[in-house]
Request: fold
Amino acid sequence: MDWLRIAAFVLLILYHIGFMFTPWGYQTPSRGVVEGVDVLLLALSPWRLSLLFAISGYSSAAMLERRQGVGVFFRSRVTRLAVPLIFGILVIVPPQPWVGAMRDTGYTGSYLTFLTNDYSLFQNVNGIPVPRWIHLWFVAYLLVYTGVLCALMQLPETVKSRFKRGFEWVLAGPLFLPLPVAFLFCIRLLGNGWTDTHQLVDDLAAHAHYLPMFLFGVLLRQSPALLEAIRRQWRIALVTAAIGYGVIVACKMAFPGEALLPARIEPLFSAAKALLGWSAIVALFGIAGRYWNHDAPIRAALVEAVFPFYIIHQTLYIGAGWWLNDFGLGALGEFLVLVAATSIGCVAFYLLGREIAPLRPLIGLGPDRRQRARVPNPATA
Reply:
C-alpha cells in the first residue's frame, strides 16, 4: 500500500502539470494547448482521487489499530491534517490566486501588495475569491471524512459487525465489479457530473463518491474476504478498465477539443468513466498486492515525503509556469522544465522542513523518529 500511495502521488503531480497543456486551465500564450493531452489525462481522471481516498481510508484503519482509542487517533489526525491545511492556506497557496489574478484579470499589484492588502480580507480580487485552499481541498475533505469515521467508530460493536458482514456479503462475490460501477454512474449522472466544486458544502456528488471510497479503504484493511475478492478479480478489472478507457478515447476522438458531447453520448461517456474509475482501483490494488508487496530502504522516506510534496507542488509548477511564459520554449521544453522545477522544489521543501523541528508539523510531518532512535534508552544502555 505504501508503494501504491507513492505512485499515486507521483501520477497526481504529473497529471496537474499536464493540466497546463489542456483546454481545462492554467495556460499561457507561449505554450497553448497540446492536442491529445486531455485524452491522455482522462486515463487517470476518473480514479486518481478515488484511489487516494481509498488508500487514506486503509491507512486510517491501520493507524486506528495502533492508537489507544478513537479520541487519541482523532487528535493525532487533526494535528497532521488541520495544521498543514491552515499553514497551506496562509503561506503556500497565496501565490496561486496572485498568478491567476495577473493572468486572467490584469491585476497589477505586487505579491506583497496582494498578500497584505487583498488576500486575507475574505473578498473577491477582480472576481477571484480569497483566501482559498485550492488544491488543499483534498486535505480538508480528508479531515472531514476522518471525523465521520471516528463518529462511526462510536457505534455499538454489534452494529459495526453487522455492517461489515453485510458489505462483505454484497461485495465479496460476483457484484464486486459491477455494483460499484453502477453506483458511481448513478451518483455522477444525477449529480453535477464528474466536475467537483471543492467547496465542501455544495459538493454532494463528490462526497457521495469519495466518502464511500474512503470507507471502502477502511473496510479493506479489516476484511480478508475483500482482499481475496481483489486477488480473484484484479485481472478482469484490468481488462474492464481498458474497455472503459477505450470508450472514452472513442468519444473524445469523435468530439475532440472543447466540443461538448451530445446529450445522447453523455450517458455512455459517464458510464465509461465509472467503469474505468472503479476497475482501475481494483486492478491497482491487485497489482500492488501481487508485485509490490516488498520493502526497500527508500520506502519510509518516500512515504514521509509524499504529503509535503502534495502541499507544495501546485504552487511550484504554477509559479514556474508563469515565469516561463515569455521564454518561448515550446510545449516539450516547458513540460520538462516544469517537471524538473517541481521535482527539485518538492525535494528541497521536504528536506528543509524535515530537518527543522518547528516546521515539521506545518508540512504534515510527525515527530522525528530518527532523533528518538539516536537517544539511548537508559533501561538498556
